[in-house]
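Hi everyone,

Forwarding the result from last night's run.
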Amino acid sequence: MKPTVSPIDDPQMDLFKTELSAIIDLNHPFAKLAAVVDWAELEKVFGESYCEDNGRAAIATRLMVALQYLKFTYDLSDESVVRGWVENPY
């Protein structure tokens, strides 16, 4: 099944939620990289591999691509990249 749509598109801000962009340094290399990646195109390309109505909803394409990038760039194991992702917002 395809990934669910992100609730980020909701224009109503939640009083008790802080946007990630208010916490991180937008000049960080990973923040800059995320700004230039064509996420919509990746969603389209990888979305062709998903079934519309079978199985559980998939993990967001952006998260999967980003974690694979980190694994490749830093030669990390699955466990290491997930552990780092949980601890580091970049």
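The chain has a mean pLDDT of 82.

Cheers,
N.
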